[in-house]
Amino acid sequence: MKKIGFFGAGKMAEGILSAIPSKKGVLMAEKVAERAAELKAKYGVKTTDDVKDVAKKAQLLFLAVRPQDVASVADEVRDILTSDQTIVSIVAGKTLARLREAFGRKVRLIRVMPNLALRANAGMCAITSAPRTPKEDVEAVEAILGGAGATVVLKERDFDAVTALSGSGPAYFAYMEEAMVEGGIALGLKPAVARLLAEQTMYGTAKFLRESGMPLRPFIEGVCTKGGTTAAGMKFLDVPSFKKTVAATLKAAADRSRELA
Ligand SMILES: NC(=O)c1ccc[n+]([C@@H]2O[C@H](COP(=O)([O-])OP(=O)(O)OC[C@H]3O[C@@H](n4cnc5c(N)ncnc54)[C@H](OP(=O)(O)O)[C@@H]3O)[C@@H](O)[C@H]2O)c1
User: At which of 104, 132, 156 does a domain end?
Assistant: First the structure.
C-alpha cells in the first residue's frame, strides 16, 4: 500500500480520511494547529505544518486546499516531487493542464470531483487522470473513495457537467427539501416534523431507486394513481417550466465551472 499524504486537512480531507482503512500511516499537512491536533486525536494520523514533509514522505498525495491556495502549495513542493508520486486533486475547477503547470512535468496526476456527501460516507466522486498516470493509481484512488460513497471514472471533458450535477447537487436537493419543509409547515406541521418527513422521504426515495434500478418514469407514474393525492400534487409540479429551471440551473453551474478553470 502506498503511503498516503494530504495537503490541507479541512472538511473534504476529513471525508476522504474517514474512508481510509488504515489511518495510522497517513500524514496530513495543515496550517491550522488546532485542526491538525483535532484530526490527530480523532484518527491517530501524523500531522505537520509543512507541505514539504508530505511531499518528501508520501506517494499518494491528496490536494485538498482551496483553489486560491494551490499555487503556494505547488511552489513549495514542485522541486521535491518525483515521477513515482501521484497528486490526487479534489480542487474544484483546477484542470489537469493547470495542475501540470503548477506541479511540474514529473509527477503523476489524478483529478477528482467529489461532493459534500463524502462527509456522510455517501459521496459521489468522479475521477479522471493525466495520460501517463498508471491505471493502478486510478484503481487505488477508486478503492479509497469507494469507501466513502460511489465513484465513476470519466473523461475530463465531462467535469464541468459533473461539477454542475453532483458537485453542486447537494445544495439543489437541500433547496428542494427546504421548499418541502416550508410547504409542510404551511399545512400545519411543526418544523422539526416537516424536516424529518421531507428528509426521510428524499433519502428513502433515492435509496429505493438506487437499489431497485427502476426507471424513473414508471416509478413516478406508479406513485401517481389516477385521481389520487400524488397525481393532484404533480399537476402543479409537472409543468415544462420546472424542468427548464432545473436545466438552466445546471447550465449556469457548468458555465461557471468552465470560467473558473
Ligand atoms: N466543500 C465542497 O462541497 C467541495 C466539493 C467539491 C470540491 N471541493 C474542493 O475541496 C477542496 C477543499 O475544500 P474544503 O471545503 O475541505 O476546504 P477547507 O475546509 O477550507 O480545507 C482546506 C484546509 O487546507 C488548509 N491549507 C491551506 N493552505 C495550506 C498549506 N499551504 N499548508 C497546509 N494547510 C493548508 C486550510 O487552512 P486555512 O483555513 O488556514 O487556509 C484549511 O484548513 C477545495 O479546493 C474545494 O474546491 C469542495
Answer: 156
Query: Is the CB of residue 261 less than 8 Å from the CB of residue 95?
Result: yes
Nearest to 105, CA basis, from 150, 74, 138 = 74
Q: List, for residues 140-182, the tens digit of each pLDDT value.
A: 999 999 999 999 999 999 999 999 999 999 999 999 999 999 9
Query: How much is the pLDDT for 131?
Result: 93
The answer to whether residues 137 and 253 belong to one domain is: no
By alpha-carbon position, which residue is closest to atom 9 of ligand 1?
A: 91
Ligand 1 pocket test, pick from 45, 51, 69, 125 with the greatest ligand atom count within 8 Å of Cβ, gives 69
- Among 167, 176, 153, 175, which residue's Cα sits nearest to residue 250? 167
Whether 99 and 207 share a structural domain: no
Of the candidates 172, 159, 178, 174, the residue with the CA atom closest to the CA atom of residue 245: 172
193 and 66 assigned to the same domain: no
Q: Is residue 10 part of a domain?
A: yes
Ligand 1 atom 21 nearest Cα: 10
Are both 142 and 256 inside the same structural domain? no
Domain that holds residue 252: 169-260
Does 10 contact ligand 1 (Cβ within 6 A)?
yes
Atom number of ligand 1 nearest to Cα 32: 40
The pLDDT tens digits for 137-151 are 999 999 999 999 999
pLDDT in tens, 194-205: 999 999 999 999
